[in-house]
Each structure stands twice: as C-alpha cells, then as structure tokens.
Structures
1.
Amino acid sequence: MLKVFITDDHELYLEGLVLLLNKQPGFQVVGSALTGKELLQKLPEVEVDILLLDVHLPDTGEEELLKQIRSLHPDLKILYLTIMRGTRYIHKLIRHDINGYILKNTSIEELVKALNTVAEGKKYFSKEINIIDTDQDFRNTVTIEDKKVDEILSKREIEVLTLICKEYSNSEIAEKLFLSVSTVETHRKNLIAKLGVNNTVGLVKFALRNNLIE
C-alpha cells in the first residue's frame, strides 16, 4: 500500500483529491494539510511514502518549505501537483532534489502513474512541461500551448496582462477594470508566478508568443 500525504491550500480540491486517490487500488492517503505550517506539524506523526505538494501555499515560500521538509524527512519522495507551467519554477525546485512535477489538470490515470513512478525511485515530470532547457534558457521560458492559455489564466488575468502589455500603469488598469490598485498588483504578481517569468518583459514576451497581443 502506497502511503500518500497531500498538501493544497484549496480545501474543496484537497478533499476531492483525497477521496479520489483513496479509491485507487494500492493507495492510502494518510494525511492532508492546507498550509505549510500544518504540513510540518502533521508530517512527523504519520508514515509517508510520497508527499503530494502544491507549489504555492499561503504561509511559506516553496524553497524554505522544502528545506524544512528535508530536515524532517531527508529521503521523503516529493511530487509537486500544480498549475505552474513556467520552467523557472521547475528548475528552482529540481535543485532541491524533488521527485516530480505534474499539472493539476492531469487525469487520475496520469497521477497514479506519476505516483507509482516516483515510488519506484524514478523521476516523473508532466509531458506538457519541457524541462530540457539549459540554465541560460529557463529563466524566461514558458511552455504553455496557445490553446491552453485560458486553462492557466483567468479571464481577469488575461485582461490585466493585455493592459500591462499596452503599458498601462497599475492605477490606470485599476481604473479601467474597476479594481483597487492592490488587486491589480496582486494580479501582476500572480501572472509572473504562474507564467514562470521574472518581470514585465517576460509577460510581454509570453503575450506575444501566445497571440494575446499584436
């Protein structure tokens, strides 16, 4: 029986995944957590084979959390389940010897395959993510197919991105979309995180590559 611990900050998604995985033969979800703090509290109390972990948790950075997890369980296998397709995040996490990285829109069949692969001591990365890029390339690389942009970005995020590319300031975007400036700033930060770019230039390159602007 493969024992899995799941951490994700979206409660409904987490509960659904726990139920779904527990129905799969050979799998047992031995614990779950909504935050990094909760994960670190619960992890020492259970026997775990694989940690299924969301990249972004509200209370801790991904690299700091990885360091703390490794201090508790140096040999624990970690499979990331996330919406982030930008290779900058993947390469950053690979440096901490993670075991895999799979997208949240994956099928249960692929998730089971990924868990079994990781359990065998192998690495598993979603086929939709290109991790072959060399270090000089990955910092501003985004591997989202055109037809899947709307699966990663919300309608509002696409609106904000389009206006950013037209060189509108945060305050101007806020006025046009009837949002607060802080909300626009949050959208900008989320776009940079989701797309795995470093700055506004990276956002513009992404928009051009995916035909969001002319």
2.
Amino acid sequence: MTTDKSPLHEVDGLCYQAVILVGPPGVGKGTQGKLLAGIPGIFHVSSGDMFRELDVNSKCGQIFQQYAGIGKLVPDHITIKIWQDYMAAKVHEQVYRPESDLLILDGIPRNIAQAGLIGPYIKLFKVIYMVCEDREVMFRRIRGRSLKENRIDDSEEIVVRYRWDVYKRETEPLIDYYPQDLIRIIDADTTAADVLHQILSTLVPIQKNYFKPPVM
C-alpha cells in the first residue's frame, strides 16, 4: 500500500489505483457513489453491484448463491476473488481503464480481513470517511429511502439498527487500520452537493497528479 508515483506492478494481475469510500448506513454513500460514477475519469465499484452482476452459472456465482440462499455472508477470501474477477472483466471490456480511471471502492473492503486480502492488489491514495454525528438522522434516511424504493423490510427499526451495529463492529475499524494520513473525513450532515464538493476536493488533485486525462 503506497502513494508514490512508481508504475503499477502485477500481483497475479493489475494493481489498481484506488480510493476507498467508507461510511455508516444512511450517511449518503450510495448517493455519492452514483454522482461520482457519472464523472469521466472515475470508475465506481460497489459491492452490491458486483454481486448483482455475478453470473449465477459461474463457480463464484454458485458459491455466492449458496451463502445468500441461507442468509450468510460470503467468506472474505471468496469476496476478494469475486472482486478480482469482476475487475479483470471490466478491464477486458474496456469499461474501466486503469491508466486513466481512478477506482472508487464502495463497500469493499468490508472489514479488516478483506482489507488485508485486497491490499496487494491496490495502490491506495485515500480513504474517504463520511461522517454524520447524529445517527438518528441516518436511521430516518434509511427508513425513508427504503419506503421510497419499496424495500419494506429495510424500513423496520430492528433491521436498521442491526445494519448500524454490523457497520460499527466490522467496517468502522478500517479507519484505525489504515494510516491516518490516508484518512479524509467528510462532513456528510449537509447537502449532497456540499458532500460531493468535499469529496472532489480530495479526488481532483489525485486525478491531476497520477492519471492521464480521460477521453471525453
């Protein structure tokens, strides 16, 4: 995990130049991911999209279905294997161009174990840590979004608070795991445009210094 300007190297494949997006449920991470995905020179990968695009007939797809079918999380090493295959496919399809696109990882790594497994395959520039001090505000956002998207189960209080507890236990420790000079705290208790402005103030200098201009 470095931040120098040395060329990309191979560890069983490409080493991707990346920023990790971290934040609790309801903080607006999904909204920002969608906004960032529309910017040339940025390639956004969410764990949800990655799993949804899995070929159910592939080996990884069948393993995922086995775990999802009984309501269990996919083991960390399998998740990273799925991610590697997903990234390789996007490069092959020329949807993602590592030399010109900054990779935004959203929802992966999910915990410290995954961070260790994914570490050799990424050159990490920053960890964008979205923070909202009032968790009740985030709970209201989750419930409102779930009702709007007709995901009634996610609007239930017990489900909302369970997701929060899982995040606090498994994902938030990433902030202490990574070097503190890589952490960029974003105040997410404001407008979506303001949050995007804060995030871009970190991403734009990285794009300018490390990437070829994207084809417009």
3.
Amino acid sequence: MQKKVKEDFFKASWKYEEAPESTNHIQIKKQYDLFIDGQFVKPVGNKYFDTIDPSNHRKIASVAEAESEDVDKAVKAARKAFRSWSKISGKERGKYIYRIARLIQEKAREFSVIESLDGGKPIRESRDIDIPLAANHFFYYAGWADKLTYAFPNRNPTPLGVVGQIIPWNFPLLMAAWKIAPALATGNTVVLKPAETTPLTALKLAEIIHESGIPNGVVNIITGAGKTGALIVNHPDINKIAFTGSTNVGKYIQKAIAGTSKKLTLELGGKGANIIFEDAAIDQAVEGIVNAIFFNQGHVCCAGSRLFVQESVADLVIQKLKNRMETLIVGNPLDKNTDIGAINSKKQLETIKNYIEIGTNEGGEIYQPKCSIPKKGNWCVPTLFLNVSQSHRIVQEEIFGPVLAIQTFRTIDEVIEKANNSPYGLSAGVWTQKGSKIFNLTQKLNAGVIWANTFNKFDPVSPFGGYKESGFGREGGLHGLKPYVKFESYFN
C-alpha cells in the first residue's frame, strides 16, 4: 500500500504542463506557386493540392501541382542558368551558398515551427537538429566551392549540368540542403521536388534563395506528387537524378534511366541493426535505443529498428527500455515536452498499423506503454516486439514507424550473421566498452554508416549512404561532392 502511494505521488509530481511553441511569428501563404527561374509562377494546369497538419488534419495551405509543361520550364530555366553559373568562380558561388546558410539561421525559429506543423515531428527535433543541420550543410559546402581542385587533385572536376533532385517527407529541409548545397558548390543547377505531404519548408527555402540574390534559374523548386517526380526523372535534358525515398521507387528510377547518359545516386530504405553487448553502459545504451527507433516517430531510413541484445543482459535491457518508454510523451508536435509527434500521413499510419497486426499474427510478443494520445490526428504508440525470429516480416521489412523488433544473441559471430541477414545495408549501431570489438564489427557489418555508443548522429563532414537495397552513392562530406562532378583531362 505504501509503495503504491509513493508511485502515485511521483507520477503526479512529474506531470508536465503544456509548453507549446508560438506560431505568431511564422508566415505561411494560403497558396504557393512553383518557383521557376527566380520567380513564383502559377502552374500551367492551374491545379493545386492541400498540405495537411498530421496532428489535427487541418489544412495548412494550397500548393501548386506541376505538370509536364511546368517541369519543362524549370529544366529550361536551369539549363539557361547553367551556362553562366558553371563559369563563375568557386569563390563567388561560395558567397551565395554562404548567404543561404546565414538566412536559414536568421529564420531558424520560423523554419522549425513550419517543419513541425507540416511534418508532425516534435518541435525539439526540428529546432535542435533539422534546421541547424540544414544550415550547417550549406555552410560546409560553401567552404568547398573554391577548393574543388584540392578535393580532387590532378583530376580537373567539372559540373554535370542540370540536376533533378527528389526528396522525401521525413526530413524535408535537411534533405533539400543535403542535395542542393553540394550541387551548387560544384557548379550545377537544380530542379528540386519536395514530397507532396511536406512541401512548405522547401517553398520557404525558395523564398530565401530568391532573397540571397542567386542568379535566376540556378535553383528551381517545383511541387507535386509521384507523377511530377517521374516527369523530372524522364526529362531528356537532365544530366543527373538524386533521389532519397523508398526502395521500390528507387528501383523504378534505376530502370527508367537505364540506357541513358544520366548519372544517378539513390538513398533508399533501411532496417538498421542496433547491437548491445553485455559490457555496454546499459543506461546509456537504453537512451540510444530510444533515440535510434523513436526519433522522428521512426520515420528515419537509418533507424535502429532491429535490436540485438546479448543474452546475459537481455532481461535487464528490456526492462529498462520498457520503463523508459513509459515516460515518453506522445502528442502535440509543437509542445516542447513531446517526445513522439504525429505520423506524417494517414497512409503511413495505416502501413504501420498493418505491420503491427502482422507482427502480432506471426506470434510476436507485443509491448506498448500506457499513454494517452489525442483523439484527432495520426498517432501511433511506441511499440516493441519480443520473441521474434529472422523470418518474421517485421524483422525483415522496413516499417518506417515507431516499431522495434528485439532479438538476443550469444556470440559476436552470431550477431554479425543476424545483422547482415537483411536486404538492406544502410546503418548499424554497436554498444560496447571495448574499442577492439567496435573495430571488428565495423569491418564485418554490411552497412554504410556504423555508430559506436551512439545512434542517429549526423554531421556535414561525414558521408552518408548505403549498400544493397539501401542504394548507392554518398551524401555529406567530401564524398558528397563526387556525384556532382565529372573528370576531364587537362589535355583536352
């Protein structure tokens, strides 16, 4: 009885009051047009679609839907701009990119709120991770713009031309920065399409790009759904496609450009292995597990969605993880207390729910914390599955939501075999106090990015990308410049 009174006391004592971020300082238009050749222009077909707040299903704004003629206009504007942009000095290009970075910093608070409104992610993540990282990528590549001969010594790098870029809905502004910044630094011009469910920060970025004074047509941002993306991929005057999104769409793009001279980079799905050894700092590892799978509602291609715990500490880790999950707050993305925001769309919520049902029907032991969620909006309680095997679909297939599949292991060889038993190869995490063990696994895990005693840490200096069905090519770091250049002989 006394124990129960104490538990009730602490639950009551630690209830957080709501702390919503203000929206008074943001400016969102009722209707957004296409950004082509330095101006916002109406779509030829005069078609618009609504972008919706996933936390309450309210309409935020109407956004233009680009059709074939609009895509052609954007590509022509980019081609015309390329003739002069590719010839100006790297130092001058760097000035424009640097200016864009500074403008993002100046409007960071507005960007973060719009990102959370449109995408559903917690304001803490938008404010502290997405927006600062986006600015940092522009800063980083501004520095490389006049140093390409040092990046590729004795190779005479030159730009490819017009680049078509298609980005996903999970990190809208950050993905735009990942793609636009290195393309501009290397002298290319851009036609970018954001995801149809999260176009607003890309369109806000278009306003900043215009404000920066960059020459018209260097960056064009057009909106629409998959059809618009296909028009970009198939346009005959585009020299390169850079795509981040699902593996199925990536396969379509690869087939579509086969037999053409277009260059291609793909950053696709993932099913990251997060490995906890018995000598790990357990409390730190538990926080790492939470960050690996519940960050951004699990809408992360490199999420640690497969957890492998050494058998000797499995019971302890799982109990601590369950306890930690009971403290997670699911709710209003604009509340600074929120840990897990809204699922990006109704369609994605249905996909996640379907996988949870599959996991249950396949015999997995499900655990969900007791937490209240809003009645309206797209919400999913953080979920664990225990007693699953390598053959379970929730272990093999990407869910892209806050769902974690847990398995145990005894030896290093066993966990390496299990971790690599996946069609994907994007990310992995290793938790141990022994450096030799970390280096051993980094050589044997088939993953493009491997974190040690942390997870989901990003930096503009570090390259990112995967193997197998997670795609090819790298973004970020010096490696992120290479997909945007070709090498010509000095003796031509």
4.
Amino acid sequence: MYRTIVVTTCLFIAISCFSLYNSTNAQTPTPTPNGSVGGTVTVKKSGKPVNRARVSLKSKDLNFKDKTTTDNDGKYLFSDLSAGNYTLKVQKQDFKSAKEKIELAEGENEVIDFQMKKETSDNGGNGGY
C-alpha cells in the first residue's frame, strides 16, 4: 500500500513537471531577427504633421519594395524588415521630396523623421496671369 502511494505520487509529480515544462516552452516567444523603420513627417517651418504623404522603402540588394502613406499625425511604419541597405523616400504634392539611405542591422528599429520644405512656385511675380 505504502509503495503504491509513493509510486503514484512520483508519477504524478513527473507528469506535472513535464506538463509545466512543455507549457512554459510553448509560451516563450521566439526572437525575430527582423527590424523596422518608422518616423514622423512634418512641415519644416511650422512643425505641423504632413498627413497622406507617400513613403516608399526600397532595397535593390534584397529585391524589396514597399510603400505606405502617413497617418493624420504624419507617422509611418515599415515592420518585419530584414537587415540590409534601404532607400527611404517621402513625397507629397506641393512639397519637395526627401530621401534617406539606411543601413539596417539585424533586429534594429530605426526612427527616421523628415521635415519637408514647401515647394515654391516661381510665377514671375504677376500672380500667374
């Protein structure tokens, strides 16, 4: 009788430990080597956010292209990026486009903010008439 209780208790403890080990391992997140590039686009003089600006990210080495637009706060984000060299470009009508080259390391999260200058149109000083 005593022997049955000891064996049953040991078996119960072993099963409990095994179950705890498996559930702990299943919940451990696997680290990802991917990074991100994000930031804010604002008007240079006023600091106001530039919403709906076109933001593109390209890498010839990685054969990668992606694009997005800024939100109402001028923010953009590209995530799940591999390490490598990228070119980031921002465009918006009535603004000069801006470009930045980025070397993204494995798992790096890069913040690139842009301050865009308004495009000046030269109409000869006659109001366009």
